Amino acid sequence: MKNLNFKILYLLSILVLSCSNNDENGGVNLTISASNSSASKLTSGIKTSNAEVVFTDFKISIRDVVFKNDDDINSSLDTDEIQFRGPYQIDLLDNTDALSQTIGNAFVPDGKYKEMRFKFHKDEDLPASNDLFDKSIYIEGTIDGTPFVFWHDTSENLDVGRSTGVLVQGNTVNFTVQFNISQFLSSLNQIDLSQATDNNNDGLIEIFPNDEDGNQDIADALKDNIKMAADLLN
Q1: Which residue among 21, 51, 160, 219 is least crowded, i.e. fewest CB within 10 A of its CB?
Q2: DSSP 3-state helix, strand, coil percentages of the chain (rounded to 5)?
Q3: Pairing relationship of beta strands 157-168 and 111-120 according to DSSP bridges
Q4: Per the domain annotation, does 5 fall within a domain?
Q5: Residues 6 or more apart from 3 whose CB is under 8 A from it?
Q6: Which residues form the domain of 139?
Q7: Quick one: which of 124, 108, 109 has its CA closest to 65?
Q8: How many whole angstroms separate alpha carbon 204 and alpha carbon 184?
């Protein structure tokens, strides 16, 4: 009987401790979104004032989302405490209409959060017919009416943050990472898409790391611009 009573008390203590720990944790609700202020068309900058560039499809594949607690001196974006494991395939554009996708909710320790990180992830487990198979970024569109496709298989990290931070104190807060599509051609590099070529003359301008059209440098510059066009909203 004494052993039984001890086990009951032990289990109750674990339950109380668990409830106490949960009181010191809030939640983060994570959304990935896009904005497209130009709506129907984008110009690719001062060097391509005569080129009409339209983005019609924008997808990314990500994983391993972590948050940095600014109140914890030991906290680091290199932590192994991943809040959202993934991978997640996210569709952010439908024929120039910007979209958003909520990833979900995760518990995090109370504190002020100023930064988050996720990794672009090329997912080889998708069907080969999927636009994001073995790719982490995918875009379709037109350049002066000629269709183009861009993709990249980068596995780089993307860090985004807000200097004011977001306070979590037993509540659920919203984090939104937003990609500004209107900055894709100018956020870091001025990209002149009128210079993209169709060297194999198949009617499709291909822009990716190993394309046959000779646009590899543009692919790397566009990948860097996409990363710079991301911001953290709350």
Answers
A1: 21
A2: 20, 45, 35
A3: antiparallel
A4: no
A5: none
A6: 27-233
A7: 108
A8: 20
Query: Longest C-alpha distance within the chain, in Å?
Result: 87
Q: Is residue 221 part of a domain?
A: yes
pTM: 0.83
Q: What is the DSSP letter of 110?
A: S
In a domain, 22, yes or no: no
**In a 3-state reduction of DSSP, which class is residue 17?**
helix
User: What is the length of the chain?
Assistant: 234
Q: Residue 143 corresponds to which tokens in the numbers above? A: 């350049």
Q: Which two tokens stand for residue 46?
A: 């001062």
Between CA 86 and CA 63 the distance in angstroms is 5
| Contacts with 200 (C-beta within 8 Å, 6 or more apart), sequence order | 212, 213
Q: What's the structural domain count of the chain?
A: 1
Q: Could you give the C-alpha distances from 125 to 22, 101, 128, in angstroms and in order?
A: 35, 21, 9
Q: Is residue 210 part of a domain?
A: yes
The angle at the Cα of 137, spanning 70 to 92, to the nearest 5 degrees, equals: 80
